[in-house]
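Example record used in the benchmark description.
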Amino acid sequence: MADVKQFAREVDAETADKLLNIHTGILQGDYRFETDFLISDGEIVNSGDYGFDSLYNFSFGGGTRNTFEYGRYFTDREYAKGEQVCIMYGFQKNLRGDYLEENLLGDGKVLIGGQEYQIIGLQSGIGTGYLPITSVGGDSVLLDEIALRFRDNISLREFNLLNDAAQKCFGSRVTSNYELEETEEDSYLYNTILLLVLAVSLVAAFNFCALYHYIVTMRRRTLKIFRICGLSHRKSIWLYLGECSVLSAGTYLVSLFLFHFLLMPFLAGKMSIFDFHYKAEVYLVLFLVYFISSFLLQYVMVSWNLKKKMLR
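Model output (structure tokens):
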């Protein structure tokens, strides 16, 4: 618990404002309790809206169902003061579960971690129950992972800030995993960027062909020598196409290196859409568009150019 409080103080305020919920498990004896919370101004606060909604829309298999049976959720005041209240496992108004059989006290209270907790609600979703993380002792053990959900995808810079704060508080125990959730706005922006890149690739292919047309025109004497030595028209075409293909592939690889290792890290610090979307498949498609369009244009240009020179 002390590490979580330190983590709340270390988290960047701007990134914390984008949080929707933080979820983790707390070990009390041999039993697991769930907890949901948020971070505000370096303090742990109630995740009231999300926590209550998650009980009504509890993920189960491929859908959701209501698991809140009776009572109410934690208030902001209870969370702020760390009051010892809990939501336990049950059905309708009936308490159930092995933990309650062993630790249930009178007056609607239950013994948790040696302390008396007031039962304020019942849920039928996850095992033992829910606790405010502010109500447990500093030596309580967190289980599994700390899952952070955001209102929108965060940038790579914000992700790194969170990761640095976690490593500072939890040390070598930290392993991070970031899953993007595609939104309609991000999808539109992503598709627009891809269309622009495709258009630029086509223009770049045309410009390269225009440049190579000039190079072929300036190598008339070399071509005449090749013809005297027995180079046929068909072989001349493949000679120039092979040279063009090597130059095209080399140019693309250099551009890809500069884009992925220089430009992308800069853009990722500004917009989350650039963080992890560009996979190998995307680069391969862009290369095929650039290479095939270049190859076809080059074939037409070289064939026409060499044919014209033969007529002369």
